[in-house]
Each structure stands twice: as C-alpha cells, then as structure tokens.
TrEMBL record:
It comes from Bos mutus grunniens. Keywords: Ion transport, Membrane, Sodium, Sodium transport, Transmembrane, Transmembrane helix, Transport. This is Solute carrier family 5 member 1. The lineage of its organism: Eukaryota, Metazoa, Chordata, Craniata, Vertebrata. It comes from the Eukaryota. It is found in: Membrane.
Length: 225
C-alpha cells in the first residue's frame, strides 16, 4: 500500500509553483511582521511583568477580540480543517462553533474571577487558590506539552509545507524561518508585539477568505448532499 507521503519528500522542490509575485508577497509579509515587532519594541514598555505579559493593560476590546481570532485561526484551519471538510463533510466545523460557547464562558464566568484575584495565568491562580508551587509547576508543564504537540507543532508543520509548495523551500529551512520570526517577535516584544502582529494576521485572514469565496468557494455548499 502506498504511503500518502510517498513521493512527497521533505526536501524535494518539484512541487514548487511559485512566481516572482508569490515570493515578493511572502517576503513583504515577513518584513511587515518584523517591522511591527520592531515598532512595538521601540514604543512600548516591557520593564515590568504586567507590561510584558499584559501589554501594560493598555489594549482595548477589539484588539483583544482580533487577537483571540487570529491566534485560533491559522494554517491548520486553511489546510487541515479545510481538507478534512472536503473529504468528510462540513460537520467538522462544529469544533469551531463549540469553541465560541467556550470563549463566552471564559469571558463572562471565569475571567472576572481571575481578574479579581489579580493573576494573569491559570497555574498561578491554582497556586493562589490551593497553595504551594508544585501544582503551578505541574500545570504549567502540562499546558506546555499539550500546546506544543497539539497546536504549535501542527501550525509550524502546515506553515512549512505551505512554504514548500509555494516557494519550493526545504521544509526544515522553512521551519527554522518560521520559528525564528515567531521567537523574535514574541520574546523581544512581549504580549504587545503578539497582539499587534495578530491584528495584521487577522486582517489578512479575513481578506484572504473573502477573496477565496470569490472563486466560487460556496459552490460546494450549495451542491452538498
């Protein structure tokens, strides 16, 4: 039985269909992201824990909303979720509808409790609630492991595969590029850099989705049985 990845070597470049415009758009996007991160580094304070992790509590509601949207929607949806919907049906979209209810519960039920207690992370809240550092340490490690293997690795993999298909770039090199840009923005700019770069990402995601629908993207929904 043939593997679905047979002939799809990680370092092969035979699938590249890029043009000069494709390369220019991607390079400009990365430069724009780095430019926004540099602007945040130069203009925003990161001297305290509140400044670094909460952007000095200076963000407004629509920035937080766009950040939550952009943090959730990525290459895993455009490639993975879309592919799963094409092969198995649109019922897979129920995951996203369920997430909307969870976000409402987070905002209206849990967030006021966290804000009143003066904490910024769930592990710290549990340490404050039950005492001791072990529960905070174990929960932080558990969240890191779950997030790395269920979210970050998928986003990095699909992003690298996309860059390979479009640019013919080696997947491992694309992974290094993606991790480097992400690390520079997050570590040096703090939460403010993440939010402002996600605002850019949210705009491109919405605009790109609308443009894709213009290519008769709703035809499958109208003919779905």
């Amino acid at each position: 039985m043939l593997s679905p990845w047979q002939g799809f070597g990680w370092t092969a470049q035979v699938f590249s269909s890029s043009s000069a415009l494709d390369v220019l758009v991607i390079v400009l996007y990365f430069l724009l992201v780095l430019g926004i991160a540099l602007w945040v580094i130069m203009s925003c304070s990161r001297g305290t824990e509140e400044d670094f992790f909460l952007a000095g509590r200076s963000l407004v509601w629509w920035q937080i909303g766009a950040f939550l949207f952009a943090s959730n929607i990525g290459t895993g949806h455009f490639m993975g979720l879309a592919g799963k919907g094409a092969s198995s049906g649109i019922a897979v979209g129920a995951f996203e509808w369920n997430a909307a209810f969870i976000l409402c519960a987070l905002g209206w039920v849990f967030s006021p409790v966290y804000m009143k207690s003066g904490v910024v992370t769930l592990p710290r809240y549990l340490r404050k609630r039950f005492g001791g550092y072990r529960i905070q340490f174990l929960l932080a490690i558990l969240y890191l492991v779950i997030y790395i293997f269920s979210k970050i690795s998928v986003e990095i993999c699909t992003g690298a595969v996309f860059m390979r298909l479009v640019l013919g770039l080696d997947v491992y090199l694309a992974t290094v590029v993606l991790l480097s840009v992400t690390g520079i923005c997050s570590v040096t700019g703090g939460f403010a850099a993440v939010v402002y770069t996600d605002l850019l990402h949210a705009g491109f995601v919405v605009l790109g989705s609308v443009l894709l629908m213009g290519y008769d993207g709703t035809e499958a929904l109208r003919t779905h049985e």
